[in-house]
């Protein structure tokens, strides 16, 4: 029968949630000369013309970019974005500088033949974009500042039909990249509390003491055996798991993806086993 620890990993200090006071999100316009690369003069020779799109106002995207940065931060599991009324409890103040919001255009020509064998030239236009931001975390207790520069991109070959579509795609990816990056910076730690199904000499499923309060399905964890050397914690990786189903706020069923034999040995030996999120 499944049993859980009296205090789960999300309540015993292993996964502290830090309050974050969101400060200014500004735009620093970088003047970049238009880059044009020309191949042959004749389009039938498959010329390529590429460069920064200059007929759009990039500053129009600043409000959307700010929203995407905020969205990214609010999806970080162990960060809680707060307003000024909770500033006294905040661990970090976060400011951000949007360093680039731009689109590029590629025009390519292709030699074709129609159904009657007649040659013609087909022109295709591709759009790409990049949105970059420098995010500054200031520790309000120590004054230490950590800066990370993250970007969202839209490839020229993503089938974006316009510069606007490419920029919006890049901004959506920027939000995803922000929370994925900071989820890795502030991982979730879980205790492995019970073995689940086993087959021969392998553990196929197991249970951890973190649930829907922090994670959802398909989150991946590395699995470690924990020891002590000279009063310090040691960890040896023995496997990898994926959350199959959250069964409550502080319990989830996981599928073993790698290391089923070693995990079973650790269970049989009564070793302390923990899992640390990787995404």
Comma- or semicolon-separated keywords:
3 helices; disordered N terminus; six-stranded mixed sheet; six-stranded antiparallel β-barrel; 279 residues; alpha+beta; single chain
Task: Tell me the Rg in angstroms.
Answer: 25 Å
- Mean residue pLDDT: 85
Number of helices: 3
Structural class: alpha+beta
**Roughly what percent helix?**
10-25%
Provide the low-confidence segments as ranges: 1-5, 31-49
Largest sheet: 6 strands, mixed
In what range is the share of β-strand residues?
over 45%
Shape: flat
What's the N-to-C terminus distance? 30 Å
N-to-C SSE string, H for helix and E for strand: EEHEEEEHEEEEEEEHE
Number of strands: 14
How would you characterize the overall build of this protein?
By secondary structure, the protein is an alpha+beta fold. Helix content is 16%, strand content 46%. The protein has 3 helices and 14 strands. Strands 1, 2, 3, 4, 5 and 6 form a 6-stranded mixed β-sheet that branches. Strands 7-10-13-12-11-14 form a 6-stranded antiparallel barrel. The radius of gyration is 25 Å and the shape is flat. The two termini are 30 Å apart.
């Amino acid at each position: 029968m499944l049993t859980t620890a009296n205090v789960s990993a999300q309540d015993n200090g292993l996964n502290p949630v830090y309050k974050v006071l969101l400060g200014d999100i500004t735009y620093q316009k970088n003047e970049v000369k238009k880059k044009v690369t020309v191949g042959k003069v004749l389009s039938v020779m498959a010329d390529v013309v590429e460069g920064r799109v200059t007929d759009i106002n990039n500053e129009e995207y600043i409000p959307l970019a700010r929203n995407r940065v905020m969205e990214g931060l609010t999806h970080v599991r162990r960060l809680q974005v707060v307003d000024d009324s909770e500033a006294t409890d905040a661990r970090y103040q976060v400011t951000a500088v949007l360093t680039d919001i731009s689109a590029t255009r590629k025009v390519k020509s292709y030699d074709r033949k129609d159904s009657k064998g007649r040659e013609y030239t087909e022109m295709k236009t591709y759009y790409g974009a990049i949105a970059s931001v420098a995010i500054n975390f200031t520790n309000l207790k120590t004054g230490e500042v950590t800066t990370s520069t993250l970007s969202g991109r839209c490839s020229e070959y993503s089938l974006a039909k316009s510069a606007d579509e490419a920029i919006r795609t890049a901004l959506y990816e920027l939000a995803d990249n922000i929370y994925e990056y900071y989820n890795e910076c502030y991982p979730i730690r879980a205790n492995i509390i019970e073995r689940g199904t086993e087959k021969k000499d392998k553990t196929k499923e197991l249970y951890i003491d973190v649930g829907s309060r922090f994670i959802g399905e398909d989150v991946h964890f590395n699995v470690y055996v924990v020891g002590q050397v000279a009063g310090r914690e040691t960890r040896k990786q023995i496997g990898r798991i994926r959350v199959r189903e959250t069964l409550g706020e502080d319990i989830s069923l996981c599928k073993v993806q790698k290391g089923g034999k070693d995990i079973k040995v650790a269970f049989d030996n009564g070793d302390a086993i923990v899992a640390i999120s990787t995404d």
